[in-house]
């Protein structure tokens, strides 16, 4: 089980646990504000934009080419931006805190 | 078995120069054909505005048949955000279980009916009815209201010999005016009443604004949904393994719907008006001229999509723009996605077999590009 804490734009923190799936699915299941996941995780809508810490970004890895092209045009993009639907729970450290970008 | 295919007419121009030209009522349009250019232009709302003269960003232009501004679609930031915020929760209602159950009921009844007949004409007897009945859920009005909309036929603006038929459009505008008056005198929990009771910066929406939202809701989701439903059934008839695969693994429903929307691209393109001299794809765009974001071409761009002309129901990375892109992305997308998911799910659960008998293609004419978007008529057998 990995523990994920989502910090919303309103600075509200919510922690959830999962052992499979991805960060978007976990956020939707826990009603995290600012994560919509409209396209269900095929990297088409960019409504699951999050920021990782530099250390976690190092561990989890950066976006692939298609995801990077999506992020390029997003508001509030940072060097540590990811689309939550493209981050599998299995790639995470035991505990992680992510910030919802919108 | 007839092979289902929507060919990509933009391939050559997309590769060679990245744009195409379309004449339209003395207001020509430069169609942008590459995914990257389409996305970038959609995001640049300052240089490429939507808030031009009402009807002008639509291709073919509706400036001669409409003075009401469609909201929030023909509004630029910052007002756009205020309208959009007002509407988003309502247009997310299709996520609710009760909505899904009602949608499933509507679709199941139509499929049962089709199975009981020897042969059925999909466009008018399935797709138009499905679209109209499902729309009653989005508007939260009685199911019977759909019968009026079905009687209008498949397109609210287009008649056989005229792509922008003002007389036909008037039927819709007059209807919406009547519904607004009804909701004013007898408010309920339908979309008209909700909008009439909504405020932006302390000011209630006026009748013209409510009408603008309602025209968009009716027009935006009509032939697009009808084409998507019709094409889905045509595709399934030529790919009999698809439904059993979905039944076996319902998690495929999501990737399948996204892929069908990418491949079908129910709305070919949507315009913007340049606010200054600029360029896209090394091509000069003059101030006050029109460009269009060609979703259909962008969705077949081989720079992003592997095997773009193949339907792969399990395509995992699918950054399509079938519902548009940026702040103006389709407000009805949640509803449309659930219509298609439910259709696939009901057909799979009921083990329906589909056989295409005869189809008359619906081909759009965009100058040098002739694009099949679906069918004018499609005869099929359900069993």
TrEMBL record, chain A:
<dbReference type="InterPro" id="IPR001041">
    <property type="entry name" value="2Fe-2S_ferredoxin-type"/>
</dbReference>
<keyword id="KW-0479">Metal-binding</keyword>
<dbReference type="InterPro" id="IPR001055">
    <property type="entry name" value="Adrenodoxin-like"/>
</dbReference>
<protein>
    <submittedName>
        <fullName>(2Fe-2S) ferredoxin</fullName>
    </submittedName>
</protein>
<feature type="domain" description="2Fe-2S ferredoxin-type">
    <location>
        <begin position="2"/>
        <end position="102"/>
    </location>
</feature>
<keyword id="KW-0408">Iron</keyword>
<dbReference type="Pfam" id="PF00111">
    <property type="entry name" value="Fer2"/>
</dbReference>
<keyword id="KW-0411">Iron-sulfur</keyword>
<comment type="similarity">
    <text>Belongs to the adrenodoxin/putidaredoxin family.</text>
</comment>
<keyword id="KW-0001">2Fe-2S</keyword>
<dbReference type="InterPro" id="IPR036010">
    <property type="entry name" value="2Fe-2S_ferredoxin-like_sf"/>
</dbReference>
<dbReference type="InterPro" id="IPR012675">
    <property type="entry name" value="Beta-grasp_dom_sf"/>
</dbReference>
UniProtKB/TrEMBL annotation, chain B:
<dbReference type="InterPro" id="IPR017972">
    <property type="entry name" value="Cyt_P450_CS"/>
</dbReference>
<dbReference type="InterPro" id="IPR001128">
    <property type="entry name" value="Cyt_P450"/>
</dbReference>
<protein>
    <recommendedName>
        <fullName>Cytochrome P450</fullName>
    </recommendedName>
</protein>
<comment type="similarity">
    <text>Belongs to the cytochrome P450 family.</text>
</comment>
<dbReference type="Pfam" id="PF00067">
    <property type="entry name" value="p450"/>
</dbReference>
<keyword id="KW-0560">Oxidoreductase</keyword>
<keyword id="KW-0349">Heme</keyword>
<keyword id="KW-0503">Monooxygenase</keyword>
<dbReference type="InterPro" id="IPR002397">
    <property type="entry name" value="Cyt_P450_B"/>
</dbReference>
<keyword id="KW-0479">Metal-binding</keyword>
<keyword id="KW-0408">Iron</keyword>
<dbReference type="InterPro" id="IPR036396">
    <property type="entry name" value="Cyt_P450_sf"/>
</dbReference>
């Amino acid at each position: 089980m990995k523990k994920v804490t989502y910090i919303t734009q309103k600075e509200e923190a919510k922690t959830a646990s999962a052992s499979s799936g991805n960060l978007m699915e976990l956020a939707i299941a826990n009603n995290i504000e600012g994560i919509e996941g409209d396209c269900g995780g095929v990297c088409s809508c960019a409504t699951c934009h999050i920021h990782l810490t530099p250390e976690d970004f190092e561990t989890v890895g950066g976006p692939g080419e298609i995801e990077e092209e999506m992020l390029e045009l997003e508001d509030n993009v940072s060097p540590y931006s990811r689309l939550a639907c493209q981050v599998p729970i299995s790639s995470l450290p035991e505990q992680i805190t992510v910030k919802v970008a919108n | 078995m007839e092979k289902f295919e929507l060919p990509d007419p933009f391939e050559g121009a997309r590769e060679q120069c990245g744009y195409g030209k379309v004449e339209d009522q003395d207001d020509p349009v430069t169609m942008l054909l590459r995914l990257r250019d389409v996305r970038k232009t959609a995001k640049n709302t300052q240089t490429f505005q939507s808030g031009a003269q009402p009807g002008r960003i639509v291709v073919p232009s509706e400036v001669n048949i409409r003075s009401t501004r469609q909201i929030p679609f023909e509004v630029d930031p910052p007002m756009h955000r205020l309208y959009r915020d007002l509407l988003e929760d309502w247009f997310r209602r299709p996520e609710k279980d009760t909505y899904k159950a009602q949608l499933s009921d509507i679709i199941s009844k139509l499929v049962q009916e089709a199975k009981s007949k020897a042969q059925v004409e999909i466009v008018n007897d399935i797709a138009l009815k499905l679209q109209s009945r499902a729309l009653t859920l989005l508007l939260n009005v009685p199911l019977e209201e759909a019968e009026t909309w079905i009687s209008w036929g498949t397109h609210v603006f287009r008649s056989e010999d005229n792509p922008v038929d003002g007389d036909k459009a008037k039927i819709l505008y007059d209807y919406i005016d009547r519904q607004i008056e009804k909701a004013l005198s007898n408010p309920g929990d339908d979309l008209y009443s909700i909008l009439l009771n909504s405020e932006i910066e302390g000011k209630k929406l006026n009748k013209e604004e409510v009408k603008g939202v309602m025209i968009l809701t009716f027009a935006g989701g009509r032939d697009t949904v009808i084409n998507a439903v019709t094409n889905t059934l045509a595709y399934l008839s030529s790919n009999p393994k698809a439904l059993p695969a979905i039944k076996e693994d319902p998690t495929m429903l999501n990737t399948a719907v996204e892929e069908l929307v990418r491949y079908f691209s129910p709305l070919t393109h949507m315009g913007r008006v340049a606010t200054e001299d600029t360029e896209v794809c090394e091509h000069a765009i003059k101030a006050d001229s029109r460009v269009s974001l060609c979703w259909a071409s962008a969705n077949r761009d081989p720079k992003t999509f592997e095997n773009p002309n193949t339907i792969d129901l399990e395509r995992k990375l699918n950054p399509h723009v079938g519902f548009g892109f940026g702040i103006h992305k389709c407000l009805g997308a949640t509803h449309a996605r659930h219509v298609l998911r439910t259709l696939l799910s009901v057909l799979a659960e009921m083990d329906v077999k589909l056989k295409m008998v005869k189809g008359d293609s619906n081909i759009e004419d965009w100058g040098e590009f002739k694009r099949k978007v679906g069918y004018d008529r499609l005869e099929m057998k359900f069993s």
